[in-house]
Amino acid sequence: xxxxxxNSPSLSVQEGRISILNCDYTNSMFDYFLWYKKYPAExxxxxxxxxxxxxxxxxxxxxxxxxxxxxxxxxxxxxxxxGDSAVYFCAASSTDTGTASKLTFGTGTxxxxxx
Amino acid sequence: xxxxxQNPRHLVRRRGQEARLRCxxxxxxxxxxxxxxxxxxxxxxxxxxQKENIIDExxxxxxRFSAEFPKEGPSILRIQQxxxxxxxxxxxxxxxxxxxxxxxxxxxxxxxxx
Lengths: 115, 114
Hints:
The complex is a heterodimer of chains A (115) and B (114).
Chain A: E1 4-5, E2 10-14, E3 19-25, E4 32-38, E5 45-51, E6 56-59, E7 62-67, E8 72-77, E9 86-93, E10 104-105, E11 109-114
Parallel strand pairs in A: 2-11
Antiparallel strand pairs in A: 1-3, 3-8, 4-5, 4-9, 6-7, 7-8, 9-10, 9-11
Chain B: E1 5-7, E2 10-13, E3 19-24, E4 31-37, E5 43-50, E6 53-56, E7 65-68, E8 75-79, E9 88-95, E10 104-105, E11 109-113
Parallel strand pairs in B: 2-11
Antiparallel strand pairs in B: 1-3, 3-8, 4-5, 4-9, 5-6, 7-8, 9-10, 9-11
């Protein structure tokens, strides 16, 4: 049962353009969402997060949008740079007190930024 | 401020041997999480620990796997009698607070079972 889904396994974008990575979730208990970036043979690196009380969070070139009614979030990278080429994971958690804040990950989207 | 440290980075074991993976959380973090990533898959939660306590082990296989986070020293993920299906990357993460906060990951231990 895949509760967090990233339906695009790969994405290719030209340098300078916008990269849009999508993520869908099925569990209504999720109320906190995160994006991680991962290079080969390294651990995931935290990028940006958003609480369900917001619909947008921005940090430099990275913006995350959350549509709760559609159970959908997206990560926008503008402008895309070659160093952004990596696998991007969407993750979700429930901050309900009394439960552990384990993260449920999607399967990742491999972003390639071309020159 | 050192990040999450894991060792060894690579571990090779033969079937039936034991594997011990170590994780030292970031300074000031008292919550440790272990995740496993199989080839071409996302990370799957295994266990969540605080000092001397297992808080959530819902993702741990029922047999051969155990984890601890003692009062002193690193967190240990132990796999007894390893099988080929245990070959994966094992990541540790830490966070300062429970619930809703970001988790910071170590570089992982890549376990290969021959």
